[in-house]
Design a protein that fits this description.
It is built from six helices and ten strands; from the N terminus they run E-H-E-H-E-H-E-H-E-H-E-E-H-E-E-E. The protein is an alpha/beta fold. Helix 1 (about 15-25) packs parallel to helix 6. It starts with a strand and ends in a 9-residue tail after the last strand. The structure holds 5-O-phosphono-beta-D-ribofuranosylamine.
């Protein structure tokens, strides 16, 4: 059984989708531990409810980002992870962290990358009057929200939508595609080679699998 460690900062609905997928054996791995940079992240409660050890490390207890990440690495590595999954982990990672887990570190970002890296993606979509939006699962590299794209899901945006409508539609997609990508990785089908993602020995296009 492959080992998975998940990092969260908030509600953890993507973590929940992964817990459910493991229980349903759609992911053939074990979530060994969940870490958060927020003591009150609801994701920690979800983990404990599922019997998964859950921990918080608080940034203000550390002198620098590197010191925080070094401790986090040490604690994560105690679980011997094959894969580290960022699921709404809202903290910039140091190069130390990203390079340590290169090729086994995944993130989900709520936009159709490379459009709208960074924060407030839904607001930007509404302000710009976009009719299409989406979410992206990608490998993490040192470039913020810039690593090789694995899979995207698109949603329509309607004129009467507000941010809550969009978030609901996006999260529905996220809960389907993120566990799927994790299962590909755990089955050994998905790798990062250089700055590209490969699935079943085929290099994925810039927009990931199903790029149409
Ligand atoms: C998701 O929408 C994800 O795209 C973004 O943060 C959100 C996390 O939601 N990175 P949750 O904590 O998994 O509910």
């Amino acid at each position: 059984m492959k080992n998975i460690v998940v990092l969260v900062s908030g509600s953890g609905s993507n973590l929940q989708a992964m817990i459910d997928a493991c229980e349903q054996q759609k992911i053939n791995g074990t979530i060994n531990a969940v870490f958060s940079n927020k003591a009150d992240a609801f994701g920690l409660d979800r983990a404990r409810e599922a019997g998964i050890p859950a921990f918080s490390l608080l940034p203000h207890d550390f002198s620098s980002r590197e010191a925080f990440d070094a401790q986090l690495i040490q604690e994560i590595d105690a679980w011997k992870p094959d894969l580290v999954v960022l699921a709404g982990y809202m903290r910039i990672l140091s190069p130390l962290f990203v390079n340590h887990y290169a090729g086994r570190l995944l993130n989900i970002h709520p936009s159709l990358l490379p459009k709208y890296p960074g924060l407030h993606t839904h607001r930007q979509v509404l302000e710009n009057g976009d009719s299409e939006h989406g979410t992206t699962v990608h490998f993490v590299t040192e470039e913020l929200d810039g690593g090789p794209i694995i899979l995207q899901a698109k949603i329509p945006v309607f004129p009467e939508d507000d941010e809550r409508d969009i978030i609901g539609r996006i999260q529905h997609q996220e809960h389907a595609i993120y566990p799927l990508v994790v299962s590909w990785f755990i089955e050994g089908r998905l790798t990062m080679q250089g700055n590209t993602a490969w699935l079943d020995n085929v290099q994925l296009p810039a927009q990931g699998y199903a790029a149409d």
